Amino acid sequence: MINRVAKDTLLRLSSQFPIVGITGPRQSGKTTLACDTFPDKKYVSFDDKSMKELAAGGPADFLMAFPDGAVIDEAQKVPEIFDALKLLVDRQKWNPGMFILTGSSQFKLKQNMSDSMAGRAAFLNLLPFSLTELSDANLRGEDAYRLIHQGMYPPLYDPEKNFIPYDWFESYIDTYLERDVRDLINPGNLSTFRKFIQVCAVHSGQLLSMESIAGSVGVSAPTIKSWLSILEKSYIIHFLEPDSNNLGKTVVKTPKLYFADSGLLCHLLRLESKEELLLSRHKGAVVETFAVSEMMKQRMNQGRKPNLTFFRDDHGFEVDTIADWKHTFAIEIKSSIEAEKKMSANTRKYLELRKDESVRSAVFYLGDVTMTIQGTRYISWKDWGSFI
Question: Which phi and psi angles does 371 have, rounded to 5°?
Fold first, then answer.
């Protein structure tokens, strides 16, 4: 069992709210986290047909069978349960941490909880393993590119399953399309949607261009906008919005697209080994995708907003990421294994433009040592998930 950093956050939220929903991509470990955190709670899965029928037939009576609460998996499969939970919470004394809800369909789970339980429920967003978690479990290894190529989905680190990444990702995509996407689009467009995901992979780490994606896929820009929303809500991709600081320059207003997992990204880019990744024109974008994902996990595991943006002006001057956390960091992400002063040129220029002494300069690189060079922190890939 690999300990999850988000466990403390789940305990914190469950000490305040009667209901906590755990959302995140498929196979990120949501059910495992819930059961590990609350081993004394009854576990119910609506994948069990008999349980599903009992709950749907009489949701209020069904909940009465769990006076101490329960972990309810695939809760979205019984929509009636959400109103029953709301009534139960409203009728009794405030009892934090009674029910923990998880589900593989993020759309329906979060929508039902948001509609029925405002003020009564909290959400924890769980992404796949972080560098910190793998390091603590002695599973990180010393090869950055091997790790980046494999990605961080928990099943790939289960010694009892011995999954080959290529086969696992193929199955993952098929399951995602059949169970999460089919009901949200015209089923006749599933093969086109698969092509759309692959086209998006080519754009990871770049400014979003719906017109370019639409042209490659062969559908309209409004359709691409709708499909991007599906990918975002299911935690396949996420966006960084442009930094809004007024620096006396015209800045771009287009977000950057990133995949949430570098392993899935490599699979979609048809990079079948770390050696192919090393020789690929997409190497820099994949490394940047991995780094941004690790920063996202650091924040989300704490139950906090990512607060990540990027800066780019109309002349093309860019800083990869602005992390507006306890301190504001301007961050460049490099695939080099050597720390060189020139790698921080853009972050140092950005600091000059900001004229704010609280803003700091950092470079993420693939070397093994975290150090400071003339005021800029050079962060080893091993520390990307905990650099502050």
Answer: -150, 170
Pick from 373, 291, 370: which is nearest to 334 by CA?
A: 291
Give residue 143's pLDDT band: very low, low, confident or very high (50, 70, 90): very high
Tokens linked to 170: 């193929």
Which domains does the chain carry? 6-125 (3.40.50.300), 131-386 (no CATH)
Has residue 65 got a pLDDT over 90? Answer: yes
Helix (H, G, I), strand (E, B) or coil at 228: helix
Using DSSP bridges, classify how beta strands 206-207 and 359-365 pair: parallel, antiparallel or unpaired: unpaired
DSSP state of 118: T
Contact 122, 135 (CB under 8 A): no
Task: Please name which of 85, 140, 109, 137 lies closest in space to residue 24, comparing C-alpha atoms.
Answer: 109
- Residue bearing the bigger pLDDT, 249 or 60: 60
Lowest mean pLDDT among 73-77, 224-228, 298-302: 73-77
Q: Say if CB 13 and CB 124 are below 8 A apart.
A: yes
**Partners of 378 in beta bridges:** 363, 371
What's the CA gap between 335 and 287, in Å, rounded? 6
∠53-39-298 over CA atoms, to 5°? 100
Any bridge partners for residue 372, and if so which?
Answer: 377
pLDDT value at 250 more than 90: no
Task: Quote the longest CA-to-CA distance of the chain.
Answer: 67
User: Could you please report the per-residue DSSP string of 246-278?
Assistant: --SS-B--PPEEEES-HHHHHHHTT--SHHHHH
Dig out the tokens for 231 from the structure. Answer: 């990918």
Query: Which residues, including other chains, have CB under 8 Å from residue 288's CB and lie 6 or more apart?
Result: 205, 258, 320, 333
